[in-house]
Amino acid sequence: MAPLLQVENLSAGYGGVKIVRDVVFNLHENEVLGIVGESGCGKSTMVKAIARLKGMNTEILSGNIRFKGQDLSTLSKEKRRKIMGEDMAIIFQNPEASLNPSRKIGHQFLETMQNHRGAVRWSEMRDNAAEIFNKIGLDEVDRILDAYPFQLSGGMAQRVAVALAMLLKPKLILADEPTSALDTTVQKQVVEEMLALKKSLNTAMIVISHNMGVVGKMADTIAVMYGGRIVEIGCKEQILNAPAHPYTKALLSAVPKLGAGLPVGLKGRPPHFSCIKEGCGFYDRCIYCTEKCASYNNVACEIRKDHWVLCGRKEIYA
Ligand SMILES: Nc1ncnc2c1ncn2[C@@H]1O[C@H](COP(=O)(O)OP(=O)(O)OP(=O)(O)O)[C@@H](O)[C@H]1O
Ligand SMILES: [Mg+2]
Fold this sequence. Notes:
Elements: E1 5-14, E2 17-27, E3 32-36, H1 43-51, E4 59-67, E5 70-71, H2 77-86, E6 88-91, H3 95-98, H4 105-117, H5 122-135, H6 141-145, H7 154-166, E7 172-176, H8 184-201, E8 204-208, H9 212-218, E9 221-226, E10 229-235, H10 236-241, H11 246-253, E11 301-304, E12 307-309, H12 314-317
Parallel strand pairs: 3-8, 3-9, 6-7, 7-8
Antiparallel strand pairs: 1-2, 1-4, 4-5, 9-10, 10-12, 11-12
Residues 14, 19, 37, 39-45, 57, 273 line the site of adenosine-5'-triphosphate (ATP).
């Protein structure tokens, strides 16, 4: 089956400055791709380049993004707007970014439906909202639909934002740190709910998270980003249990694990986007680097089936 989303040599950024570099991956129906990497490595920029909503100044500098075979980078704004919400939806870190503070929840649900389905009555919207609320265990449908976002707790508002994103049963959800603003208990609950919704609606997802636990729980495939590039991508088990790229190894060893000794942590800082040189982007911080890494051609190598690594030191992971 053809992939739902095909990202081909995507480079994207702001004001001509390249942030995301030559990113390649496929996402299949129903699949969850988790994206990890240090703050500022370009995770949100990549997702924003896919969504390019109004107000997002992210530019596609080269490459293609095909969704159900259509190239989103050349599609008209109107056609893209039609796809967003209907086929693809986005969930942000804070519910304030997804919900309008001055409109009752019910009106926002109604507007979303009307934007895509024409004249929709309140009762029809209520049925649709109730179906989604029910799947994530939100009762009190009418109380929520009649509330303003500020009348809900942060956790409840984020669950409503998830429900709104899922309202039209999109094929793909882009979730940028969907649980990071929540406390641990609510975070777990929202992760469970998103997984339940995904399962019942067969939604594919791209989930960005700083929390390796969240990615480990949700993702089928994990992509590790560094300096705007995907430096390693593969199935969750491979990435977590047999990481190959020196950056992935360092990132995972920085996560405190029970009985795994002291976290090692990473020294130094990621490179500045304005001065990324040719060669390996992780060169300056890598404990395995040799002189030849400075001229590495950044061509990914498939070390096992569907497990790709961007590192010229094959001898350390082969
Ligand atoms: N709207 C914007 N305009 C200009 N530059 C931006 C914009 N958004 C992000 N950047 C720059 O792009 C780079 C990557 O940022 P991005 O937000 O994609 O990183 P991230 O991996 O999502 O980080 P975090 O984990 O902190 O959310 C940073 O250098 C940032 O300053
Ligand atoms: Mg981000």
